[in-house]
Structures are given as structure tokens and as C-alpha cells.
TrEMBL record:
InterPro entries for the chain: ATP-dep_Glu-Cys_Ligase-2 (IPR051680), CP_ATPgrasp_2 (IPR025841), UCP005522 (IPR016450)
PANTHER family found in the cross-reference section: BLR5612 PROTEIN, SLL1039 PROTEIN
Residues annotated as transmembrane: none
Natural source organism: Acinetobacter qingfengensis
Name of the protein described by the UniProt record: Circularly permuted ATP-grasp type 2 domain-containing protein
Domain Circularly permuted ATP-grasp type: 64-438
Length: 467
């Protein structure tokens, strides 16, 4: 909220004034009201291997994260540029593989990747769009520069929290919301539906959301989006394949499905193509997909592009495919598969963050400055045994935001996940995103599965005076 000299940033002046007029008890009451809203609406997420129960409400903090429009434009333009290059990369590696032939990216790193899908070789997706829904995780350092922490192209989640955070802000603090000209985000479900419609040539296509079920960590989001888009939420038992086409079982009889927004991983999509023991997928789905009778969003095989070991090459992709300079910076990254970089990492583990290349949810990480000698030694052995499974990055001075604690206001580290919608016709980003906050003092891990919370993200264009 403040400049380095302690003065309040212009975009936070009205929020600071509003907070100063509230007692800590009043702010705490608002946060409690937000928690009750989450419980009433059933806004939960699942924590796997949690002995205290599987479902939790995500912590919410009432103090918004504010970005001026000119700051947001950098985030939005940079995210669009990045996703455009990643889609071009996916088309290339499943067709001519020119970027590999030119030596920009080592071929073995792509072709031997476990997420690389031979099913997608020489298969043309409409408009070259493989990742229709993408999430780009962005941080700011102490100088105010934006950095991309990672890309999410498989089944990125969190957009329902983004929308519900805004609903809570308008419900609990309407006076301060009216002081700002907030750019709206509530049309996201309609933009998502339009993106899926544009992914097919069918008029009035039948769209479904395929969920692995209510035990999935993001099931609330699956149901939320299905309701907001007015499309069926289905499981594998609701679909079947016949004569190379996918059908939905309905009360009115079977309906041919044109677009499947899938929220389960590649391995479980089709037991005839991938894991034979999957009961979450639809037998014959990949055959129908290869027959161009149905669109799957996001496309199978996108995971090879958002792996953390591919991440260091995204800047090169932007230059290679778009002939542009990257708008957003990458965090410097050491690839432990490279002997000279592994040697550096092994000698500086106390200073680095080490991540699994295929990891997610904040699991499988080492934060060197906060780790015990035993934890560091454990990771040293992991790196020496299978170095190709890990990358390492320096610990950046992540920007912070105030949150309400039992002792009053305190600063906590935050990140931002804007959601990019890509179709052959247009790339769209609503002006806002999911701000995740590390609720624990000193923590750099913002994932909800690791105790992180969320804030509303305000993109503001013009401010008025609060009377």
C-alpha cells in the first residue's frame, strides 16, 4: 500500500482512509462474514491426505489488492503474449517440430517428456488453439517489476474464487467499492462460454463440463462454472461414444456433444487410450476427438508446455514464434538436468527454492532459507538421484499486502493468477485475477493446499472521493 518512503500509494488512499475509520473488531467481523458466505455458498476445496477432513473453506482477507489500469495492461498484454507463444509451441512440436530442429529447445526434453502425447502428432486443432483456458502465475519483486512464476495450461483452477471474492467485496464493503471505478470481471463465465463456442464450427454447439467428481479439489468450481454458463456438469457415466461421436445421456434422449471442457488430467480421459484402470474417463473419447467430431478444451498434450523444465524457454518461444521481446520477465531458473547448473544448485541449496518440474499445489518444494539442515540434505539426495525432475530458482523479495490477523494488520506475500481465454477469433483476459496470499508470517507459499488464502483483485481506472 505504501511507497518506499512510507507515503500511501495513490490507488490505496481511499482504502486506507476507509480502514482507518474502522475498528479492528469491525474488520474482523467483515472477515467472519466472508467466511460465513463461503460456507453458505459451499465454496470449498479439497485437501488430499488431510487427517482433519477433506473439505475446507479458503481463507479470505477483506483488504483488496489494487492495480492501476496501466499496471494491469502490462500484466494482461504480457499474459496474452505468453499464451500465444505457448500455443504456437504446442502446434509446432506436434507437427513440424521446427523449434527442436533449430536447436532452440533440446528435442529430448520435449519428445521424451511424460506429458508429450503421440496421440496429438499431426492432429490439427482449430485455429492452433491447444490451451483455451490458461492461468499465468505472476509475482512482483521489491522494485515493482512483474515476473512470471509459472504457466498453467492443463486444467488451471481458481477462477471461481476470483469471482466470489468480488461478490463478497460488493456485499460487505459497497461504500468503498463505489469510490473506485472497478473494472468488472463478472462476465468471465460468458466469455468462457463464447471461447468454447468459437472453438468449433458447429452452430449452437452442445457444451459440457467433464468433472472427475465431488472428491476433486476444484469440484466447487466445476459446478459453479456449469451453473453460470448454463451447461451440463457431467461425469464419465453421463457420456458415451458411438460411431466416432460423443453423446450425452439426457432425459430427452441422447444429444451429440460438440465441446468438452474437461477438468481431469490426460491420463484419465480415455481408458482405451491412456490409463486402462481409469473410471473417470470416456472409452473411445480420443478416437472421437481424432475424428474431429468433438473438441476437448484444453487439448490433450498441453502439459508438455507448462512443465517447469520447459518454462525457462518461454522467452525464446516468444522471440522465435512472435518475433517480439517478452513483456513479462521469467524468474532466473536453474535446470538441474544440466550438470553445471546442478552443481551450482547443490552448492547453494540454502539460498534457493527447489521445485518438482511436474509439481503443483505447493507440494514437493524446498525453500532453502527456511529449511532445516535435514530437509536440505534430503533434497540434496533427491537431486543427485533424479536431477531431471527438478528446477531451482532464487528466492525473490515477493511483494506484500496487508491482511487482518488476530494481532491487527500485518504484511504477507502475494501472487496473482490472471486467466487467459484463447479462441481462433480472439484472446480475452478479464481485468482482474486471483490474488493468492500466504497467510503464515514469512511464508512464500500461497497455495490453498498449503494454508494460503485469497483476496479480491481490483483493477481501477478512476477514483472518486469518499465522503
Amino acid at each position: 500500500m505504501r511507497h518506499k518512503d512510507g507515503t500511501i500509494r495513490e490507488e490505496f488512499v481511499q482504502v486506507e482512509k476507509w480502514l482507518s475509520e474502522k475498528s479492528l473488531a469491525e474488520i474482523e467481523q467483515l472477515n467472519n462474514a466472508a467466511k460465513e458466505h463461503f460456507i453458505y455458498e459451499g465454496i470449498t476445496f479439497t485437501v488430499y491426505n488431510d487427517t482433519e477432513g477433506t473439505e475446507r473453506t479458503i481463507p479470505f482477507d477483506i483488504v483488496p489488492r489494487i492495480l492501476e489500469k496501466k499496471q494491469w495492461d502490462i500484466v494482461s498484454d504480457g499474459s496474452k503474449q505468453r499464451v500465444k507463444a505457448l500455443n504456437a509451441f504446442l502446434h509446432d512440436i506436434y507437427h513440424s517440430q521446427q523449434i527442436l530442429k533449430d536447436g532452440v529447445i533440446p528435442a529430448e526434453q520435449v519428445l521424451l517428456h511424460e506429458a508429450y502425447q503421440p496421440w496429438m502428432l499431426n492432429f490439427d486443432v482449430k485455429g492452433g488453439i491447444y490451451s483455451h483456458i490458461s492461468g499465468v502465475d505472476i509475482i512482483r519483486d521489491g522494485t515493482g517489476e512483474f515476473y512470471v512464476l509459472e504457466d498453467n495450461l492443463r486444467t488451471p483452477s481458481g477462477v471461481s474464487y476470483m469471482l466470489e471474492c468480488r461478490n463478497i467485496s460488493k456485499k460487505l464493503m459497497p461504500d468503498i467499492c463505489h469510490c473506485y471505478e472497478l473494472l468488472e470481471i463478472n462476465h468471465y463465465p460468458q466469455l468462457l462460454k463464447q471461447t468454447l463456442i468459437e472453438s468449433t464450427d458447429v452452430d449452437n454447439p452442445v457444451i459440457v463440463i467433464l468433472t472427475p467428481g465431488h472428491f476433486n479439489s476444484a469440484y466447487y468450481e466445476h459446478a459453479f462454472l456449469a451453473r453460470e454458463m448454463d451447461v451440463p456438469l457431467v461425469g464419465a457415466h453421463d457420456l458415451f461414444v458411438e460411431n466416432g461421436k460423443v453423446y450425452l445421456k439426457s432425459i430427452a434422449g441422447r444429444k451429440q456433444v460438440d465441446v468438452i471442457y474437461r477438468r481431469l488430467d490426460d491420463d484419465f480421459l480415455d481408458p482405451l487410450a491412456f490409463r486402462s484402470d481409469s473410471v473417470l474417463g470416456v472409452p473411445g473419447l480420443m478416437s472421437a476427438y481424432r475424428n474431429h467430431s468433438v473438441v476437448i478444451a484444453n487439448a490433450p498434450g498441453t502439459g508438455v508446455a507448462d512443465d517447469k523444465s520447459i518454462y525457462p524457454y518461454v522467452d525464446d518461444m516468444i522471440r522465435y514464434y512472435l518475433n517480439e521481446q517478452p513483456i513479462l520477465k521469467n524468474v532466473p531458473t536453474y535446470q538441474c538436468r544440466k550438470p553445471e547448473e546442478l552443481d551450482y544448485v547443490l552448492h547453494h541449496l540454502e539460498q534457493l527454492v527447489v521445485k518438482e518440474a511436474q509439481g503443483s499445489g505447493g507440494y514437493g518444494m524446498l525453500i532453502g532459507p527456511q529449511a532445516s539442515p535435514e530437509q536440505i540434505e534430503e533434497f540434496r539426495q533427491k537431486l543427485q538421484y533424479k536431477p531431471h525432475l527438478y528446477i531451482a530458482q532464487p528466492t525473490l523479495a515477493l511483494s506484500v499486502s496487508p491482511i487482518m490477523t488476530e494481532q491487527g494488520f500485518a504484511d504477507r506475500h502475494i501472487d496473482l493468477r490472471p486467466f487467459v481465454l484463447s479462441s481462433p477469433k480472439e484472446t480475452r483476459v478479464v481485468p482482474g485475477g486471483l490474488t493468492r496470499v500466504a497467510m503464515q508470517e514469512g511464508s512464500l507459499v500461497v497455495n490453498s493446499s498449503q494454508g494460503g488464502g485469497v483476496k479480491d483483485t481490483w483493477v481501477v481506472q478512476r477514483k472518486e472521493t469518499l465522503n
